Every structure is written in structure tokens, then in C-alpha cells.
Amino acid sequence: MSANVTGQEATGPGAVAPGAAAPAPLLVELVALAHRRLTAGLAAALAEEDCTVDQWRVMRALADERGRTMGELAQALLIPQASLSRLVDALADAGLAYRRQDDRDRRRITAHLSRRGRTRLTRLDALAAAHDAAVRTACALPDPAADPTGPLARLAALRTSG
């Protein structure tokens, strides 16, 4: 894709001829880059409370008080069930979450946020909100509450096949 040390130009898919402009980035490239940068910034903010982005996401998903099965959490957060089980185990070990057997279907186990987890989530959400506000200000992005059907919300809701 670039000239080698002997000065011969590269060939093949995606190769750019010397002097030619690079192709414009695709949406998927821009979103991937933005995701990496946003996640790195959020991870640094959450690290102040010794929390990972995925732990925070799980805690937020459990904040509705109704409890979620591991399958529901995995689907909602797009986290593989094995990884999610380890995350919930770590939260439970720290006293931030707990598992409960369903009263009607004893095979059904739901995860819940503990009282201690709710307190911690309040602090984590404040760090995340500050990070979010700084990014929105730097990029001149509107608050999603002002336009809940805006382009970022539509992009996040997009379901694709393949």
C-alpha cells in the first residue's frame, strides 16, 4: 500500500498511487475511530473510581430495578455471555450487584444492582456525564434529549445484517 524501500510502488486493493489523494474515509471508519477515542476518554474518567467501561454499562443496564437475565444483558449490551458473566461476577464480588432466582421460574436467574451499586453508579454517572458534556462541547453536538431521533440516535439504533 505504500512504496517499499527500493522505491517500487505498491499494488493491490486499496493501494494509492504516488501523489494521489487518499480515499475519503467511510462512515464505518469514522465511527470506529470516534468510538475508540470516546471509549478511551471515558475509561480514563471511570478509572478514577476503579471501574471499567463495561462494568459501568452493566451497572446502568441493571439500574431499572427489574433485574435482567444474562441473556437479556448480553443482547442489550452486545457483550458475549461468557465475558458478561465474568463482569457480573466481579460486580457481585464487590457487593455492587447480586443474582436472584425468579420466584415463579426457579431456572430463571436475574442480576440486580445492589444499594451499594446504586450509590457507586451515581458517582460513575457524574464522571461519565462530565466526559460526555466535554465531548459534546468540543464537537458542538446537541444534547440527545433535545433531539432523541437525531443522527447519532438513529445510528445507534441501526440494525444491520452481515
Account of the 3D structure:
The protein is mostly helical and 162 residues long. 52% of the residues lie in helices and 6% in strands. The protein has helices at 27-47, 53-62, 70-77, 81-93, 115-139, 151-157, and strands at 97-101, 109-113. It has a two-stranded antiparallel sheet with strand order 1-2. Helix 1 packs across helix 5 and helix 2 (53-62) crosses helix 4 (81-93). It is elongated and about 65 Å long. Mean pLDDT is 87; it is low at 1-7.
Topology at a glance:
Blueprint (H helix, E strand, L loop, with lengths): L26 H21 L5 H10 L7 H8 L3 H13 L3 E5 L7 E5 L1 H25 L11 H7 L5
Count all strands and give the number. 2
As laid out across the biggest beta sheet, the strand order is 1-2
Report the helical percentage: 40-55%
Q: Distance between the terminal alpha carbons, to the nearest Å?
A: 27 Å
Which structural class is indicated by helix and strand composition? mainly alpha
Mean pLDDT: 87
- Over the alpha carbons, how many angstroms does the gyration radius reach? 21 Å
Q: Helix count, per DSSP? A: 6
Runs in which pLDDT lies below 50 for 5 or more consecutive residues are 1-7
Coarse morphology: elongated
Q: What is the N-to-C succession of helices and strands?
A: HHHHEEHH
Instruction: Give the DSSP E fraction (strand runs of 2 or more residues).
Output: 5-15%
Major sheet characteristics? 2 strands, antiparallel
